[in-house]
Specification:
Blueprint: H1 5-22, H2 26-49, E1 55-60, E2 63-67, H3 76-87, H4 91-102, H5 116-131, H6 134-148, E3 151-152, E4 157-158, E5 170-172, H7 179-188, H8 192-208, E6 219-222, E7 229-233, H9 245-262, H10 265-279, H11 306-322, H12 328-342, E8 362-365, E9 370-374, H13 377-396
Helix pairs in contact: 2-3, 2-4, 2-13, 3-4, 3-5, 3-13, 5-6, 5-7, 6-7, 7-8, 9-10, 9-11, 10-11, 11-12, 11-13
The structure holds glycine.
Glycine binds near residues 72, 174, 246 and 364.
Length: about 400
């Protein structure tokens, strides 16, 4: 029996429209994500509270793994708590936010790596924004002084890691994320040099870290006499020439933030270029949660990095509000799709599982087989940040 063509078309239209009808309203997705995030985070906060000085890191082999303030991830868990407190000002959330923020305080004296922005701005920065506690500002003042000891006037950048036989002055793309902290402290302490350092670092990175397609190297090491790059490598990516997923996410977030803070058009151009690289990449999966490296040789049989998706989503939401071009709505749509994916049962933890972490399927350092396909606090931090950014936009409209 032949089925008339009109009948087939009507059935197709019906199926498509059923698909649309079935999609939950975004506001419900956001609220569900925030509810699960709150429940999970309170569980985790309680579990780790008895481990003196420790901060949640990941959940592996049915065990919650923690770190001290020294780890680069130390500020994210207090940051998640502060964001959740901002969304729902419950005394219990604030109590834990304050407790875990205190555990990071000693990081303010660190001078042997660049991670102070992650450590202090996510924790003390959010805490100060929400409570006005002047002690939090004092901690950040000391931290900013520690961070700028790593700035070099010849290279015009902040050194990420200590020198090694391979690298004289290594700078990683992740370091862009420390600049928001320095720019904030420039305003708070009327310190123009912090602003210049941030601007110089961003310009140096823009010049040397990016390829013509706007993908970025992970590590660029500079000759300390000439200030010129002597090596361009990877540390956490598949290859020197590959596009490590989280590195691309840090770059996108970093230049979006730099444009917000400086209004310089070259930073907007850079953010647009990185966004286009990510959004149009042929190896981006349909759910828009990238594999750990865009050039991993075993795609699609390799692991994802939900942390990269969360960072990209948060950055794209911001970029969509800063950019006036016709691309802006596309950034927002893409971020919404990422948030829908991350809030699906594939990535969002079933309440009471996942050790109390929010998201599943992130990858820390694939090359060292360290934290592969696990929950990670920075995935949770940028996921909750993205949910709040979307919620704010929804409330404004
Ligand atoms: N900043 C370290 C990382 O992204 O893994």
């Amino acid at each position: 029996m032949k089925i008339p063509i009109l009948c087939i078309i009507s059935m197709a239209i019906l199926l498509i429209s059923c698909g649309n009808v079935k999609q939950e309203p975004l506001s419900e997705v956001i609220e569900y994500g925030l509810t699960v995030a709150t429940e999970q985070t309170l569980f985790l906060a309680k579990e780790v509270s008895r481990r003196e000085g420790q901060l949640p890191r990941t959940y592996e082999d049915n065990e919650i793994k923690t770190s001290s303030y020294r780890a680069w991830i130390s500020g994210f868990f207090p940051g998640v708590l502060w964001y959740l407190y901002e969304n729902n000002p419950m005394d219990e959330i604030r109590k834990y936010a304050e407790m875990y923020t205190e555990r990071v305080e000693e990081a303010k004296k660190i001078t042997n790596n660049h991670d102070l922005g992650f450590m202090l701005y996510c924790s003390f920065g959010n805490g100060y924004r929400l409570t006005g506690n002047s002690h939090y500002l004092d901690v950040m003042k000391t931290g900013a002084q520690s961070l700028v000891t790593r700035y070099d006037k010849t290279v015009l950048a902040i050194k990420s890691w200590e020198s090694s036989s391979e690298w004289q002055f290594p700078v990683i793309i992740d370091n862009m994320m420390n600049l928001e902290f320095l720019l904030f402290m420039a305003k708070e302490s009327q310190n123009e040099s912090y602003r210049n350092i941030s601007d110089n670092h961003a310009r140096t990175t823009l010049k040397n870290h990016f390829r013509s397609d706007y993908s970025s190297y992970h590590v660029v090491s500079y000759d300390t006499i000439t200030g010129i790059p002597h090596a361009k490598n990877t540390h956490q990516g598949y290859a020197d020439s590959s596009a490590w997923a989280r590195g691309q996410a840090w770059g996108l977030y970093g230049y979006t933030m730099m444009y917000r803070e400086t209004n310089r058009s070259e930073y907007l151009e850079q953010a647009r270029g990185v966004a286009s690289f990510i959004m149009n990449h042929p190896n981006m999966p349909v759910d828009k949660v990238p594999y750990w490296d865009f050039n991993a040789p075993d795609i699609p049989n390799t692991v994802r990095d939900a942390s990269a998706a969360a960072i990209i989503a948060s950055a794209l939401i911001e970029l969509s509000q800063l950019d006036n071009s016709i691309e802006a709505p596309k950034y927002l749509e893409y971020a919404k799709e990422q948030i829908r994916s991350l809030t699906s049962s594939t990535y969002l933890a079933k309440p009471g599982t996942n050790g109390g972490f929010i998201l599943r399927h992130s990858t820390g350092n694939y090359n060292k087989n360290s934290e592969v396909d696990v929950p990670l606090t920075y995935a949770d931090y940028y996921y909750v940040e993205a949910l709040l950014r979307l919620k704010k936009l929804q409330n404004e409209n």
